[in-house]
Amino acid sequence: MPNVLRVAWCVIGMLLLAACTASEPVPVTPIESPLIPTAEVFPTAQPTNTPEPTPTMTPTPTPELHQLTTDGCCVMPAWSPDSKQILFIDKPGPKVETGVYAIDIADRSKAPQLAGRVGIYSPDLSLVAYPQDTRTLVEKISSGERWVVPNNGQSVVFAPDDQHLAWEAEAISGPYDERQNEMFVANITGKDVSKVARVYGGGIVDWLPRGFSLMFLGRPSLNSHDSTLTVLDLRTNEAADLVTAERISGVRLSNEGDWVAYFISFNPDEKRNGIWVQRTDGSGARQIDLWGAYQWRDDSHLIVVPARTAPDQPFELWQINAETGAKQKLTDAAVTPLNILNGDWRVSPDGKYVVFVNSADKNLWLVKLPEE
After folding, report:
1. What is the pTM of this model?
2. CATH number at residue 276
3. Which of 49, 134, 180, 272 has the fewest CB atoms within 10 Å, measured from its CB?
């Protein structure tokens, strides 16, 4: 989602001072720059409500459930790229350093260990970006070398090649859907800066995990009523519009970037409202018949936590096959009650686990998912 980067950057800024306590179609034309030629925009693919096959229901397995932390610690868990560690921001004591701490899931009895400073890490964990005063610094972890990125302290997003980064510069006043937002790409040192696109009321979603493409969302001009979800190939400067609607939110890329999930809300055509999955080449748009929070398990399976019907009802995990629409119940609320706090849960990169903040005790818990 476009606001995630700004929220994450604000959280990092605050946590540097105090850590978590124990508690239809309109083409989007990229901006011309000296480094990137004018784009050729592809036609927008139209989502179609593909009929969903009747699923074959199998008995719901009983997954393993483990408590990871105590004393109400912590929030906003994340995963190491190899899925072997759960990471979270903490300050375990008044004389202990604020930082990113890690739990080894193979040895959960071991106390969390300091893994690094608070910041945004590159995919290979060799670099970390963090705010200092009104500047954005990037540090090479192996040597301690660091440099300033000339972006006026904006949050950055590392590219999958670990050699480039992107950021956005949004207007700070006016209605959100009318705010101009310009997106920039530079090499890892902050040099060779190029303005690659401009939207209104949106911004960067993420880099696609493969290749050199940036996904962003927003209105292409103030004259456009609708927002467009776009993939821009920065090598060819070709832009592909995936979907256009007034309100598109919850955009999440699959692990390898072949699929994207999003939801459309408050659309005049009520049949379009709901969660959709679609290939990032613009094909295969499919609406799913569940409503709730969602994350990708791998490159083609979406895990959904359906909205519950009562506040005291535990959550369940369901899995959707993006290719076929088939769904599978992964946990049963009556057998494995999941009390997830404020949607704070994360699927491991290898798709084997989910870590979540338990609303009952505010601790981190781990559930091992059944095999596919």
Report:
1. 0.83
2. 2.130.10
3. 134
Q: Are strands 292-296 and 286-287 parallel, antiparallel or unpaired?
A: unpaired
Parallel/antiparallel/unpaired status of strands 180-187 and 164-170:
antiparallel
State pLDDT tens for residues 29-86: 344 333 333 333 333 344 444 445 544 455 566 788 999 999 999 999 999 999 999 9
Residue 142's region, left for phi above 0, alpha for psi from -120 to 50, else beta, is: alpha
Q: Beta strands of 33-96 (E only): which ranges?
A: 41-42, 65-67, 78-79, 85-90
| 133-147 pLDDT, tens digit each | 999 999 999 999 999
How many Å apart are CA 21 and CA 14, to the nearest integer? 12
Which tokens is 30 given?
């990229």
Q: 179 vs 7, 134, 166, 202, CA distance in Å?
A: 17, 22, 19, 8
pLDDT greater than 80 at residue 162: yes
Q: Which residues are within 8 A (CB) of 246 and not within 5 positions of it... i.e. 6 or more apart?
A: 225, 226, 227, 266, 267
Q: Can you give the residue range of the structural domain that contains 245?
A: 4-23+25-368
Distance CA 197, CA 203 (A): 9
When divided into structural domains, the chain yields a total of: 1
User: If you search the block for the tokens 């239809």, which residue do you land on?
Assistant: 24
Percent composition of the chain: helix, strand, coil (DSSP 3-state, to 5): 5, 40, 55
Mean pLDDT for 283-300 is: 97
371 vs 369: CA distance, rounded Å: 6
